[in-house]
Amino acid sequence: MSNNADEIPAVCNNCLGQNPYVEMTRERNGAECKLCTRPFTVFRWSVKKGERSKKTLCCLTCARAKNCCQSCMLDLTLGIDLRTRDQLLKLTDQSPALELTPQNQMSKIYAASQLEKKYKAAGEEAIETVEEKRADARKLIDSLSKAVHNKKRKQESEQDEEQVSKEELIKLCKHLPFNGSLETPKSSKIKSFFLFGFGEKLAEYQVRDYFEDIVGEKKVDAVTLNHRGKFGFVEFSSRQAAEKAAECLKDMLPHPKLVVVAGEPLRLCWAGKTTTPSFSTTEVAQVRTIVNRQMIKYATKEQKKSSENQVQSPSTKRSKTESTASSKYTSLRTDLEV
């Protein structure tokens, strides 16, 4: 193998295109390698007729050392640029095989020539080392993604454990109706809902579509979601639209209603005030803590109530079954008479 050998180029599938028969032109010593500055054989080809032709930008030795495409110069395994890939490799003390850090041209040429001799002597073993680097790169990407995810979870847990005193709790709860319900408020100026308990994946347009489907028309003026604090507001264009949405979602529970919007569970109720309150960064973290506590509190209450309803005496169950059967028989008899 040589930087100017009469061999086929190392090009990725994206640069070659879908046509299995590609016509290439070869020009020996046609250009200077972008990495080692040595002259190399340049290949040119066109993916489609009429389009601008593609060409190789680096020699085969540098492409093999960097595990990149000779044309687009992106990593063949990860599909990212070489600088980003090299920085990721340095995080795990895995420097690339060819580091062209010296600015001196002669140093670059010497490093590339030594590497070319190494590949020529190694033969097939050098290919195995490239495969090992690819596997190491995959492991590196997986470890980095896990580290970022764990760091994010840790930050969220620290925010969830924000300490809130009684005074701060009373101050924040004055602005946010955590104990509200869907009972129609006395003030006719209130035409918005208060939401809390949703996750980071919930988008504003999903909330808007949810309420517009309930009302049956586009009557939602604004949707404000604070994902860090896990609370938000939905403002309707009229009080009638807000009352219609509340009537469709209303139940007999005296606390905020539990609904699922785009796979995200949340609770909602009438907003306590006509204006949306503003909070500082510290207050938002404290509101997040209150939201988590309220979600656990209401979930425990509903679970306890449902378990109490399930515990019934046999006589009660029997009478309930008989009454249900009787009502069914009555409705059938009426249909037959008709």
Notable characteristics:
five-stranded antiparallel beta sheet; alpha+beta; Pre-mRNA-splicing factor SLT11; three-stranded antiparallel beta sheet; disordered C terminus; Alpha-Beta Plaits; 48% helix; 338 residues
Summarize the structure.
The protein is α+β, with helices and mostly antiparallel strands and 338 residues long.
Q: Under CATH, the topology of the largest domain is which?
A: Alpha-Beta Plaits
The number of helices is 10
Helical content (DSSP H or I, runs of 4+): 40-55%
Count all strands and give the number: 8
Proportion of residues in β-strands: 5-15%
The low-pLDDT segments are 96-100, 317-338
Give me the strand/helix succession.
HEEEHHHHHEHEEHEEHH
Q: What's the pLDDT, averaged over the residues?
A: 76
Strand order of the largest sheet: 5-6-4-8-7
Shape: elongated
For CATH, the homologous superfamily of the largest domain is named as: RRM (RNA recognition motif) domain
Q: Roughly how many Å is the radius of gyration?
A: 34 Å
